[in-house]
Amino acid sequence: MAAVTIKNITKAFGDNVVLKSFNETFKDGEFITLLGPSGCGKTTMLRIIAGFEKPTSGELYIDDRLVSGGKTFVPPEKRSIGMVFQSYAVWPHMNVFDNVAYPLAIRKAPKAEIRASVEKVLGVVHLSQYADRFPNQLSGGQQQRVALARALVAAPKLLLLDEPLSNLDAKLRESMRFEIKEIQRELGITVVYVTHDQTEAMAMSDRIFLINRGVVQQSGTPQEIYNTPANQFVADFLGKVDFFKGEAKDGRIVFPGMGGQSIPYGGPRTGKVEVAIRPENIFFAEDGVLTGTLEAQYYLGDVDDCRVRVGDTLVRVITNGWEYKKLANGRPVTLGVRDIMVFEDDGLLEQMLSIQT
Predict the structure, then answer these.
(1) Residue 115: CB partners within 8 Å, gap ≥ 6?
(2) Domain spanning 4-234: CATH 3.40.190.170
(3) Under DSSP, is residue 13 helix (H, G, I), strand (E, B) or coil?
(4) HSE (side-chain half, CA atoms, 13 Å) at 324
(5) Out of 36, 82, 177, 354, which residue is the most buried by the measure of CB atoms under 10 Å away?
(6) Which helix (H) or strand (E) holds 170?
(7) Which residues touch 37 (CB under 8 Å, ≥6 apart)?
(8) Contact, 11 vs 184, CB < 8 A?
(9) Taking the C-alpha atoms of 319, 321, 327 and 332 in order, what is their torsion angle to the nearest 10 degrees?
(10) Domain-wise residue ranges, the chain
(11) How far apart are CA 140 and CA 223, in angstroms?
């Protein structure tokens, strides 16, 4: 196991600065996720930790050992790391046992040690019965577990994973999330995981670092980032959310786009605001605070994803799938709101959304 300390790391490719002043310590045994859109710098940070890239400035420590910074650079093979890439990268001409044994074989470890280590790690990833099979006889998920076992067999201090599930189908991706998390708990190993998938980050992480344009926008537990986002980008990127322009005054927020309807507000902001509401936090209620007309429903089995027109604004409501039987398009409804997030209306949201589209 290992801690990772990142001190003021910046990385630039020519004039393009992809990481700006990254400072953090990943604790021993933590599951850390670097999350963000494509091109935000998360994979670059992972490659710096692995030793595949040198930082432009700053220092990187694994435990108390300086591995990157100044004139010091420790190559990847001497950092005691295991790495799993997006592609499975398993040798097609080797069976499962030999694929997993490869890192120990090239070190010329004793055969008895190789066999004991491989058998142990195959048990951890639930592949013991497939030791003699070749990759073309395995499913995608099984091949990814071979790659994971190969990364673990040499007992690294640190496990790095670069979008390892993105090539799997949805159901397999979901099951592999929990398998990787259980393996991490069982071994107590420190993991740094890169993904753009918010669901993966929420399900697996002890802490999430949400990055945009090379800058960490917020770090914290999944619950902290989801429920108390630091800014509109974080609120928009993590989870489903709608933004509504309003004006905070006299203990309420008035929405001009909703025909002047309002909701209670006891927060500190006044004047023009952006109100972020997650659709699971709006619900149908007889004594609700907003009135509108149910315009559309999208039945998804476990949930009913609805659109309600309130004034000139469409409001998204995600409710229990059983509600689908009770609701009818065109019906007047009232809505309750259980939680909101209020930001200063500084015009940045429109800029952010225009960049994303």
Answers:
(1) none
(2) no
(3) strand
(4) 13
(5) 36
(6) helix 170-187
(7) 196, 212, 237, 356
(8) no
(9) 10
(10) 4-234, 240-356
(11) 31
Task: State pTM to two decimals.
Answer: 0.89
Closest CA to 207 of 60, 79, 29, 68: 29
Q: How far apart are CA 303 and CA 298, in angstroms?
A: 9
What three-state secondary structure class fits 304? strand
Q: Give the model confidence (pLDDT) of 12-29 as tens digits.
A: 999 999 999 999 999 999
The 10s digit of each residue's pLDDT in 225-264 is 999 999 999 999 999 999 999 999 999 999 999 999 999 9
Cα 197 to the chain's mean position, in Å?
5
Question: Which two structure tokens, joined as six digits, stand for 64?
Answer: 């108390």
Domains 4-234 and 240-356 share a fold: no
How would you write 40-107 as a 3-class SS string?
CCHHHHHHHHHCCCCCCEEEEEECCEEEEECCEECCHHHCCEEEECCCCCCCCCCCHHHHHHHHHHCC
